[in-house]
């Protein structure tokens, strides 16, 4: 099962490698990992997408908690939550494709953020499925480059990690 | 007053009541060595190899419960320490390892004797620090000792660039410490304690299974009270020996791969398993699919990640072992309910039947010296009073099986990592901590050669260790596996090229005695102990093909032992 683990950790050099090292040393999966400082500059917020049996996910949570740099963590997939990912995608846009891409971008509520005679660069956010669907919809278009941020997540309602 | 970083390090060690630092100098730590030179509150013990320093600090820690402290230089000093750090990590031993580092401005430049010590040690420490400012030294030391010694203990590495040990700042040692990201749990959950006690008292075929956590957590007294109050059988892991007295009739001895028949059968057939400070290691459980098929499992451990890691448990209790056992004992005092006497009597009958197998029997009439015989006699001659360290191999298992430990912190061995070379330096650390006690190192001709250079350290500090070398001319444990599982193809396990150990010991200034006949075993042991102030190296020429029994082969369940 896929899980999204949200972590507050000390904003220290080496904290990221402790987390990454834990996953590789214990052969846990990482689908994506994002990290950046929060409004409190001593803390970073990390979002890890992983998968495994219930036993493995329990161990991942416990082992993460054991790391001295980890202040708090929460498995977002345990209850209602919001997932978002940002994608930047550069496509070839010549001839008919120019209009076609523009239409698709509108349908998916993306933005074209850079234009040349032959290319568009598009920004689009959503959950992973939406981004996949957009890439799928571009099947007749030549994709030049795809950059995805990895998933970010937050709990619904008044629940906070802090 | 302003102090240099190096002086601050000494002050921190003093503030933490550190008696000994085991170390080896080099360029990156010369400022620190200079600070050592100018004081004598903290004693520096000069080893002959950094691995020896870590094992010595480890032996000091295991025999006292206090953290061991190590000081090594950057680069090769740090990498030589790695084996000892990993050894301490696997057995959760509190240790502080100070590694020198190249000056801050050179970090990342592939400077002379630069390695990424924090990176290399990351997976084998509880935590590590790179100090980047002289102002941080005191705080980091305070945190390091706190982290190393609380919760599930473990080694902590502090990496210090050379320039920082020369910089100056006002010194003040923090009085207390709070870390928002580190709060070990001490007390057990009251609801879980109650649930556990109900299950414990309702048991018909109970088994208490305890590990190194009881020793690390100083829970031996509480465990004795608990076990005796209930009258239940108890088995201890290799790391747990001594927490409950081996000589007590409730003790079934060690369990696991080379555990006793009664302990392993008791585990396999129990209906309630009370696991305390043990971690269900694969050498203990055998095949997990076949492990304790009928048991409701209660597990007490200070580390939540140890619970339900290998074996799913029914009643998890996170907390300090001694605390939780106190809570158990209180609950047992307060309840009217008592153990099921009739069921217990039947259970003990069954256990005594298994016991009558006498699974540790061996040929006592042998013409060659049996390793078991040496251990048995060593127990008799010392009346079980020695602190015993061991290396890794058959001799380690024989020591665990035949030297009955009645007290905690008297049996010191590398269980988790299984590090050959551990025994001699660990014995040095134990002897420093207990100058009046008899410290004996049980080893094999292969293991002892891995840190043999420390015989010089023993000379320098007049450590009167007794080295019990069970010399079977083989890496015995490897040979045993090759005999059983590789059709006796003894590939590279023959240790027939050896030094003359007696002469070797003598060349270091010690006494060496070679013992070849069973009749000479006791006199030699007595002679070695009579030499109160001297290290005696006893080279026992033992049966080359003796095996450790019982044995659970890989993939088998605890009830599927190979017996003699
Ligand atoms: C550093 C290290 N290398 C290799 C091993 C694998 N190993 C385990 S036991 C053993 C043989 C030990 O031989 P010896 O010290 O003579 O003891 P014996 O088994 O004969 O009692 C070996 C090589 C180890 N445990 N540690």
Short description, anyone?
Chain A is α+β, with helices and mostly antiparallel strands and 162 residues long. Chain A is 28% helix and 40% strand.
Shape of chain A: elongated
Global Rg of chain A: 19 Å
How would a crystallographer describe the biggest sheet of chain B?
Answer: 6 strands, parallel
Number of helices of chain A: 4
**Whole-number average pLDDT of chain A?**
96
Rg over C-alpha atoms of chain B, rounded to the nearest angstrom: 24 Å
Proportion of helical residues of chain A:
25-40%
Q: What's the number of extended β-strand segments of chain A?
A: 9
Q: Which features characterize this protein?
A:
heterodimer, A: 162 residues, alpha+beta, five-stranded antiparallel beta sheet, four-stranded antiparallel beta sheet, 4 helices, 9 strands, 28% helix, 40% strand, elongated, B: 564 residues, alpha/beta, six-stranded parallel beta sheet, 20 strands, 37% helix, globular, binds thiamine diphosphate
Descriptive notes:
The complex is a heterodimer of chains A (162) and B (564). In chain A, the strands form 2 sheets. In chain A, strands 5, 6, 7, 8 and 9 form a 5-stranded antiparallel beta sheet that branches. In chain A, strands 2-3-1-4 form a 4-stranded antiparallel beta sheet, covered by helices on one side. With 162 residues, chain A is an alpha+beta fold. Chain A has helices at 15-25, 54-66, 96-107, 128-137, and strands at residues 2-10, 32-37, 43-51, 70-75, 81-92, 111-115, 119-126, 143-148, 152-155. In chain A, β2 (32-37) and β3 form a beta hairpin. Helices cover 37% and strands 16% of the residues of chain B. Chain B has 21 helices and 20 strands. In chain B, the strands form 4 sheets. In chain B, strands 3-2-4-5-7-6 form a 6-stranded parallel beta sheet, sandwiched between helices. Chain B is globular, with a radius of gyration of 24 Å. Chain B starts with a strand and ends in a 23-residue tail after the last strand. The mean pLDDT of chain B is 97. Chain A binds chain B through residues 9-10, 13-14, 17-18, 21, 25, 55, 58-59, 62-63, 65-66, 68-71, and chain B through 118-119, 122-123, 126-127, 130, 147, 179-182, 303-305, 308-309, 312. The complex binds thiamine diphosphate. The site of thiamine diphosphate has 19 residues of chain B, from α16 and α19.
